[in-house]
Amino acid sequence: MDFQRAQEIVASSLEYEVTYNGVSVWIDQLHNDEKTATVHLRRSLEERSEVAISELKEEYLVH
């Protein structure tokens, strides 16, 4: 994923499926370096990690 798409997802009122290493995450914060973000696992609000935005994947849900 690139920084611009990450910004769009964070700013959106819609819910997007984003994964990091195959695990579903929420993007908590985008950092000023435009390369990293703080995320947490959808099932665990306490466990946060700083990750490379390029390693985040937007999953497309089939309805």
From TrEMBL:
It comes from Lysinibacillus macroides. Its main location: other. It is found in: Spore core. Belongs to the SspH family. It comes from the Bacteria. This is Small, acid-soluble spore protein H. GO terms for biological process: asexual sporulation; sporulation resulting in formation of a cellular spore. GO terms for cellular component: endospore-forming forespore. Keywords: Sporulation. Induction: Expressed only in the forespore compartment of sporulating cells. The lineage of its organism: Bacteria, Bacillati, Bacillota, Bacilli, Bacillales.
